[in-house]
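Protocol step 4 of 6: structure prediction from sequence.
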Amino acid sequence: MKIRIIIFILAFLSSLVKAENVYLVKVNPGECLKCYFAQGALNKMVEYGFNVVLLFSEEQNIDQKRYISVNLPGLNKTIDTWISDSLYNKVSNDSWSELYLIDDNDSIIFQCVMKNIWKFVGKLLPGNKTVKCQFSDSIQTIFNVLKYNGNEYVVFDPRQQEIFIFAKNGDLIKRIAPEDFSTEKLLLLLDQKDSLSLNLYNKIKEALIQYGRSDPAFRRYDLKDSVLYVILSVPYPVRDNKDEISVYQKYLVLKLLIYGKEINYLTLSDNLVPDSVFLTMLDFQYDNVSSTFSFPASNTSDKDKGNYFVIKGVSEDNVLESKELLKYNLNEVFNIDTLPQYIYPHFFNEYLYFQYSNIIFNTIDENDTIFTPFKSKGYSIDKSGLKVNFDFDLDDFIVDSGRACFLYHDNELNFYYSILDLNTKEYSSPQLLDIEQKELKSNLEFLSGNSFIYINNNNEVIQYDL
């Protein structure tokens, strides 16, 4: 008789599933559904026309209405509640809260634990993808840095050392490469017409050519309106006190107009970088409101203490002079004993993010810090300090209409979108994005809080509307 009752219940459920597309949520009251943003996922399923039912067991001996009001306070009122020991025990013996879809043969045709609910919902409700244009010149490698100013696309290929500027329709405007700039002329510029470093360079030029170190190199760039700012590193020979020649790297900032041939060279003054601090050039930013350049920096002694820096400079007669030095202690950010060997900072307008951490700093207002949607410690490293295993990492970030919007991925390269209401400090449910790593040829670049772009394998610019 008990088996018949179970079969009857499953058959009844199956008829509902077949007729109304019912998704059954087996609830474990001891599990933190709030931690998975389950309420938002279930509400979104209802919003898109799915019939959702919560399943409890009488053996749980709880007040279901009370539980929902406390743990899922904003749950859509159309979501029904079922209470059945037999059905609860029949669908699964797993202790996790789970989502099921059962067919008319009483078979479970879909099942996922609620902690992974957004992976399911993201694939069930993909965003809208639109091809904006296809580039007229092929981008060869897959690790490209894309920026867009509303009229032109700029693509930096760090491996091939090329910068491409495309019009809105995908036509190539210009291509820039380091070989466009003479090392000899740059050395004269760095030495202010003194030919000392140039003479040393000419003595060892053949050796530098042999080792592939004779030409300048693009390091980072930023795009503001129709002006491109590019960090250029130049091989800089120096004779030491043992009369031996060592080659260092000196930096220039190129100011290039997208339309036109004019180029301004900005050199870095000696007072820009304090003693014992060195520029890492792992990112770079220009703020056209305050006319300020920002560079990440480090030093050997403070690195062990977890201290990293941001150097801000302003241009005076085409020379970058020191404006401000900001200091960040990353031991406090990561809250672990050992930092990774390399820390990669990323600028997002006035905000600064350190890779694998879960906090974003405002470089203008030190009281304005924003925590990312992912709350894990971010990464783990092996004893050598070389291998990094991370839980989540940030791809792009924007503040738009009172919201902080995040694009990020996990260590399985699933991509997510989430928003933070800056007034209430509440996060939205993370939305899994319909993107696979293998289709990407560039980073993800926010257009606004509701859309972003990227380059795919066909050299097309894809706009993804959320």
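Step 5 (inspection) to follow. Residues 451 and 465 are 4 Å apart (CA to CA).
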